[in-house]
C-alpha cells in the first residue's frame, strides 16, 4: 500500500524512490483512503452493461484477479452485478471481504430520507450486507448537502466502509466540505489523456481525497493518439495498456469497462513495466481539459436527469427499480 502523499511527490518530480515502488505494483495493490480503508487501485467498471452481461463480466473479472467492481443504480445493472458477485463467492475462490464494491446514489434519489430509503434497494439488488464505497453520483444542486448527511449516517451505522462523491468540481466539493462531519474519501471523475483534471487532482491531494478515474480510454478516442502509439511501441504494449499504466502511475484509481474476458486480462497486464519520466510528461502534455463528447449534452445536475434509467433500464432489471 502506497502513501498518497508520496504519490503527490512523484507527480511533482521527486520520483526516484516512487518510480521504483510503482514498478512493483500489481492487480492486488491498494491505496489508503483518508479513513484507513484500503481501496484497490484497479478495477472493473460496468457502465452500459446489461444485467446478464454484467453478471458474467463480474464473475470473470474476479476469476482473473480483479478485486474491485464499480457500479451504480443509474446504470440499471446492480442486480446483475449482485448475481456475478454471488457466483464468485459461492465457489469459494474469494470471500466477500476480498472484493471492494462501489455503488452510487442516483440523481432522482437525492435528499436525506430518500437516499436512506433507496440505499436498501441497492443492497438488495447487490445481495450484500455492506458496501465498501458509496458515492453521490452527480451533485444535484440544492440537494447534495442533505444527501451527504445521509451517507454520513450510513457510514456511522457501518452500512458502508467509506463514502465519497463523483463528478464534483472543486467549487461544489468545497461547499460540501464546509458542512461535512465526515470528509469525502474519493472523488470519481473523468480521467484520460485529454481530460486530466489538474485543478481537481491538486485540490484532492491537498485534502487527502483519492481521485478515481472513469472513462480512462476517453471513449476509445485516446487509443489512436500518435504520442500514445509511440510509447506503446517503445514498451511493446498496447495503447490501452499505456494509458491505464499512466493512470495508475499518476496515483489515479482506474476502472476500465469491458465485457470481453480477453480484454479484461489485457487491461490488467500493466504491472510488469513502468513509464519513465519522458513518457509521463508526453502523456501529460496531451491534456486538453476537455470532457467526452457526450458529457455536456445532458443536464447532469438536476433530479430529473435519470439518464441511466431512461436509456439503460434493461428488461431483466425493470422490476428491481420500483422501490
UniProtKB/TrEMBL annotation:
Record site: Lowers pKa of active site Tyr: 104
UniProtKB keywords: NADP, Oxidoreductase
PROSITE patterns for this protein: ALDOKETO_REDUCTASE_2 (PS00062), ALDOKETO_REDUCTASE_3 (PS00063)
Active site residues according to the UniProt entry: 75
Matching InterPro entries: AKR (IPR020471), Aldo/ket_reductase_CS (IPR018170), NAD(P)_OxRdtase_dom_sf (IPR036812), NADP_OxRdtase_dom (IPR023210)
GO molecular function, one term: oxidoreductase activity, acting on the CH-OH group of donors, NAD or NADP as acceptor
Gene3D superfamilies (UniProt xref): NADP-dependent oxidoreductase domain
Domain of life of the organism encoding this protein: Bacteria
Domain NADP-dependent oxidoreductase per the UniProt entry, residue ranges: 42-286
Record has Nucleotide-binding as a keyword: no
Binding-site positions, substrate: 137
PANTHER family named among the record's database cross-references: 2,5-DIKETO-D-GLUCONIC ACID REDUCTASE, NADP-DEPENDENT OXIDOREDUCTASE DOMAIN-CONTAINING PROTEIN
Family: Belongs to the aldo/keto reductase family.
Name the record gives this protein: Oxidoreductase
Organism listed in the record: Lacticaseibacillus thailandensis DSM 22698 = JCM 13996
Lineage: Bacteria, Bacillati, Bacillota, Bacilli, Lactobacillales
